[in-house]
Amino acid sequence: MAASEGAGQKPATVLNTAEVDPLVHLNRAHAVVYSCALLALLYHRALSILDSPTLPSSLLLLALTFADLVLAFMWALAQAFRWRPVRRREFPERLAGAAGRREEDWPALDVFICTADPYKEPPVSVVNTALSAMAFDYPAQKVSVYVSDDAGSQLTLFAFMEAARFAGHWLPFCRDQGIADRCPEAYFGSPAATGGHDDEIKIMYQRMKGRIEGVLEKGSIDAEYVVSEEEVEIFKKWETGFSRQEHPSIIQVLLESSKDVDISGHPLPNLIYVSREKSKTSPHHFKAGALNVLIRVSGVMTNAPMVLTSDCDMYSNDPEAPKRALCYLLDPSMSSKLAYVQFPQRFRGINKHDIYGGELKHLYQIHPQGMDGFQGPYYLGSANFFSRTCFYYSSPPSPASPDLTSSNGCSTESHNNSIRSDMVLKKAHEVASCSYEKGTKWGSTLGIRYGSLSEDHHTGYHLHCKGWVSVFCDPPRPAFLGDVPITLNDVLSQNKRWSIGLLQVAFSKCSPLTLGVREGSLPMAMCYARYAYWASWCIPMSIYAVLPQIALAYQVPLFPKVSNRWFYLYAYLFLTAYAQDCVEFIRAQGTIRMWWNDQRMWMIRGVTSNLFGVIQFFLEKVGISGFGFNVTSKVIDDKQTQRYEGGSFDFGAESSFFVSLGTIATVNLVSLVVGIARSWTQGAIQDMAIQVLISGFVVVNCWPIYEASVLRGDEGRVPAKVIRSSVLFAGALFSVAYFVFSV
């Protein structure tokens, strides 16, 4: 039954509703039955270990039991997502009619866009993201777009100077034509662009794009592109002693809404370029540090109550997104403790069957709905509308709480001045300096939290622990669209970084299983723990990918035979878990084929990015290696795109990830062939049936690896060096097994 989040209001002014998932009771019943089955499984494992005839088989059964315990632990944590999932609906069309919510009374909006490398994150893509935000269906004089350039690149600044000029034509075009696709690249690539005036604006866009890409290719800015003395002075800052790791802060106001207008005379949004000060002697805290600088700089310059954080490639696909967020941020029943409104991250250009599981439906859609039944979803790092208040108060403030903004970098005196004034710019440069955070609580109780490469998960977790809530807004039309990696190596590298960042939270003093339970709630702590220990999937995945298969090759039974009643317990646990996951996936607008690819990527991540992330994390803990933040490349290669769109896995890189995959693929194929042959000749098919099924299941999932190793001849095939290494490691595993089982 729909429940209003604005109790006590007239029906006409209800801005949002929430409805509990109708399958919640079925989920709870299944959880009870499945829990009993898991206990029965562990009981059977204990009996099997006690009855094991040899030491090697006992050790194998112990390893499998450990894997089962980890699987049971992760399953138990995931039940919190299924306990009370909520689906929300908002009514932005009612904002104008609600008392006290006229357009001129709406809160201002600051938009934060972060970029870190012009060669991995092309400036044209970042410009498109900014232009789509500037074109929100929202009062332009209330919108300010801040671009954080952590590379400190004059090429990125040049791109936004070009964007500022183009915005004067693009924004009135969007407004007059009433178009929904307000990202230029997306609009001109869609059937909606029909010619006429569209062609004129498209030519202007292509010229701007050509200038930006030409400058990027050359690596410098020709004098012909610098149109004023002011721009000459700006670019002089890059002439001497300027490097990516060592440079002063640069804050450049490119558009000011109180002074700059578009070609139709309407005010343009503010557009501000920010490159914070960098020094090799001061920690910069990666993206979290960049966002905290933007919080302070914007606090000095515009101080909007509403803040949108967006990845550089995550453009607006729904111009009404800010209004949808307002339906929650202006709701009196929740606004005092509402930290943020999270939209799902959706992606463009995903191939038909999503071979790399790039949509990450559990992370971005299914699980946030589950958390919305408690305190709300985790912060996903992008497509998120914050209430600025939550950056300054560790817990929701009361009306009597002191003002903490002015003492933490927000200058209230500057808000009546032009954002180009010397006083405002001086203060903005001050709060963007390396030394500003020393001796403050920024990164601990203020702003975005430090201490993890997954700053988004870490920040949302701390806000929820302190009593803040959030909501998940998932409208029918995706509010934001981004790009996904289109090579397997990039996908796994990104996941490895996430694994390390989440482990930093899991093994800190702020672990969800300690602080989360103590200061939050048990369901919320379980949800956060499920992702904090995300990398632990490597334990059961690695064990089940190798040990039953090697035991199959040497005819060592580890599971009950088909005629044994315990066989049905294992079948039930596997089939019902997969069936429930499949149903959830399809209800989230997925397909069977996409779900199959998603579960394959779950297993691939377990034996590659999760495994290597765990190894690197613990090596760092003992001082052997250090963490780094690797920017995922957004540059698209035509041949890679062609392979991706054709549904072919790209194994072209000589990556250690692929050696791990190749080793497992080889072990499973050899074990399946040898195991079936030996089981048949020895009459032990029933004894080895489950191990045959496990090995066969892995072999089926490994088909893209076999295909890329033997059948393909393109640049995406598995490199010969990787094949040799994989065969060598597989041979080593079989040699060890031979010594253990035969000697």
From TrEMBL:
Active site (UniProt): 150, 456
Protein topology in the membrane: Multi-pass membrane protein
Chief localisation class: membrane
UniProt keyword Glycosyltransferase present: yes
Keyword RNA-binding: no
Top-rank taxon: Eukaryota
Pfam families noted in UniProt: Cellulose_synt
Keywords: Cell wall biogenesis/degradation, Glycosyltransferase, Membrane, Transferase, Transmembrane, Transmembrane helix
Record-given protein name: Cellulose synthase-like protein G3
